[in-house]
Amino acid sequence: MFNPFDYALHEDPYPTYARMRREAPLYRHVDGGRLDFWALSRHEDVRVAFRDPRRYSSTYGAAFETWGPKARARMSFLSMDPPEHDRMRRLISSGFTPRRVQELEPRIQQMTRRCVAAVIEAGEFDFVTDFAERTPVDVISELMGVPSSDREEVLRLTNVILQRGKEDYTLPDAAQRAHVAIMQYYGELIADRHHRPGDDLISALIAAEIDGQRLSDDDIRAACLLLGVAGNETTTKLLANAWFLAAVHPDQRATAFSGRIGDWIEETLRFEASTQVVLRLVTEDVDWYGQTVPAGSQLVLLPGSANRDPEVFPDPDRYDLDRDTSRMLTFGSGPHFCLGAALARLEARLVLEELVHAVQEDYEVGQPVRMHSPNVRGYSSLPTRVKPR
User: Fold this and answer.
1) How distant is the alpha carbon of residue 319 from its chain centre?
2) In Å, how far from its chain's centre is CA 372?
3) pLDDT tens digits for 78-111?
């Protein structure tokens, strides 16, 4: 059984993925009416579905907990199909340009060096809560225009929104309350920017216009939630995954510390995709492997499995910085390719470069605590001991 909410599966989903690819490349799951979905696990199948928004729609959202016709209120342009998606993405991209991202580099370095100095002084720290989540929340907040004084609360609400219990097939009460609070906060921030625009993403989104179209405040709030949660969470998980994987693969750590930071990031993205599960709504009857998936079905795409497909990645369960990762699907493919991919890679590179320059290679990690989510894979805690260079 493949149950994305199962805590045991979260510890190591890859044997289950391998069996699905071999025995049930089109997997059917019915669980007492609570979960009713089909799933694709092979690389080529996941890639094809990502690139066919006509048959595999995003309008019901990309996650189990937000699934439904009102997903747009939570997931912004992730819950739209072309051509509406394309227009919305262009509007948001206008405030998320490569120039704007690159201009953040000196600020990211400054924030990272401050965080690195603090943890080196401590010697022992939690890599996630004391370090990895600090830079991403500052960066996305800096980009969006969230004041420094509010960032700790934004981070707290973001973490609560992502919490899941063992039997929570919908958003728990605490997560729903956090969602209401953060949406209210973004609404107040947007109202302020209407009167006092600045050089930030929210101001750019308010002013953005394509073919006479502007974003509503509700659309901007949804975009803020999406960028705030995704911008914080996935980069935090990438950093902690990279740090842990290098520690338990010392030969690869030596390669990473020799200067191959980019390869360290890319192989981590393949080996432990932060986003493991992406949902789509089937819009017409489709045939897979001799079976018909009827229109209206919930289809689960598994990029985490696709990245371990031996047809594409030889010896896929080996963590290897020398491999070709160019076909990984961590950031998706097609019209919904992750808008923040360049920013995530930039943040990860700058953070890991600072660490490599500042600490000795033989750092130690303790027992990590895994975050439990049907969609996101990573750690909520990672004890670490370092020695300065």
Assistant:
1) 20
2) 14
3) 888 888 888 888 877 766 667 777 777 888 888 8
